Amino acid sequence: MSDLIVHGGKPLTGRLVPSANKNAVLPILCATLLTREPVRLRGVPEITDVRKILEIFRSLGSRVDVDFRAGTLEVQHDATRFDEREHRLPEEMRSSILLVPPLLARFGVARIEDDVKGCSLGMREIDPHVEVMQHFGASVERTDDGLVLRSPRPLGASQHWLDYASVTTTENFVLCAALASGRSVLMNAASEPHVQEFCRFMQQLGARIEGIGTSRLEVTGVERLGGTDFTFAEDFHEIVTFLALGAITGGSVSVRNSAPQQFPLIDRTFAKFGVQVRHEDGWSSAETAGRLKVREPFTRNILQKVEAAPWPYLPVDLLPIFVALGVQAEGSVMFWNKVYDGAMGWTAELSKFGAHAFLSDPHRVITFGGKPLVPASVESPYIIRVAIALLMLAASIPGHSVIRNAAPIRRAHPRFVENLVGLGAEIEWREGD
Ligand SMILES: CC(=O)N[C@H]1[C@@H](OP(=O)(O)OP(=O)(O)OC[C@H]2O[C@@H](n3ccc(=O)[nH]c3=O)[C@H](O)[C@@H]2O)O[C@H](CO)[C@@H](O)[C@@H]1O
Ligand SMILES: C=C(OP(=O)(O)O)C(=O)O
Predict the structure, then answer these.
(1) 304 and 217 share a domain?
(2) Where is the Enolpyruvate transferase domain (predicted)?
(3) ipTM for the whole predicted complex goes beyond 0.95
(4) 163 CB less than 6 Å from ligand 1?
């Protein structure tokens, strides 16, 4: 178990360059398996999920040359082989499922393990993925510990309309369609910044994709994909995290941000807690005039609210970070997670800090913020941004707090503790059983 020990109450101040977005890096890594040509990636973060994917690449016989200090990765899958009886996809990460289309395209066979669940946010379905593979011509067989899929090569083109705008299902559709024979169309496609970044990478490999950033993606299959040299963009999750850490501790953090056009709704959400975000010359910063305070709506008798849903709504993964602001801000806010049915239960843990948060149903929680808080020892569920939300509160409360089981942070944020120490935090990892 990895715990975070925090001596809170210090304002965090300074400038930071964020890392790449795990949810762009992982599908892009999986996509490299579609080509036999060398691919060079820059800005590769040293996070556990990346290590797991590189490990499976090595075990498949691919060439992997990574330098995490420089952030560069050279990968080539020319001598790669896959045996469904021998190889297992990485566990405890959702992105494992993104290895399935490249395996089908290259070897005509793939496995989906029972454990491709990722963060414990509630039900994480595999049916939409299986349906996509079936539309492209795959057959599916259930085994004791997962599914085995087999498909013709090349895959046939597909016209498909998703039940909902699923991030990884959209990416899997594009991965299948890139080398399929003919024109494939996906309706109700996801359009998150990481989905767009992934599609741009696919274009660099030579994939023919139209409609990036919209809910209709059209992909015309090509015979083969080439190599490329690609630099990852900055992670909006990490930008928001550091801005929020500055605001909640009464400090001021500036974060490099090359895509402020993605931020208008995020900025308005910060403003609901009295935090003003500014974007200038490629940097974003957050300022608070005095205490955090919830902005009262003009409509009488309603609560201020933050709604999270598929893009272009506020991303659900950011919700815990705003819940932490809600706990510290004077006033009440309703948080509404429209995606997951089990992502809010962790808020019971907030009472250990002396906070008042009420779980109204599996999707909604109300914070009654601005109460005096005390340091505490709290337990994080296996949810990356919840570990961060608990840490934000610990950092804002004077005294000694412990976030038990904070290791999920390492799935997405490289050098997280080092970065916070650089901003003036007193925080360290404690490794235990
Ligand atoms: C590796 C990766 O990229 N993971 C992200 C990806 O996961 P992932 O692609 O697994 O998430 P999906 O978009 O498929 O949504 C997750 C679950 O939410 C439910 N659902 C979702 C949308 C909807 O309109 N209705 C609905 O019921 C479904 O049960 C679904 O299984 O997107 C999620 C939603 O942004 C993020 O939390 C994850 O961090
Ligand atoms: C929930 C997340 O990741 P995953 O889907 O891999 O669990 C996340 O990145 O916040």
Answers:
(1) no
(2) 7-420
(3) yes
(4) no
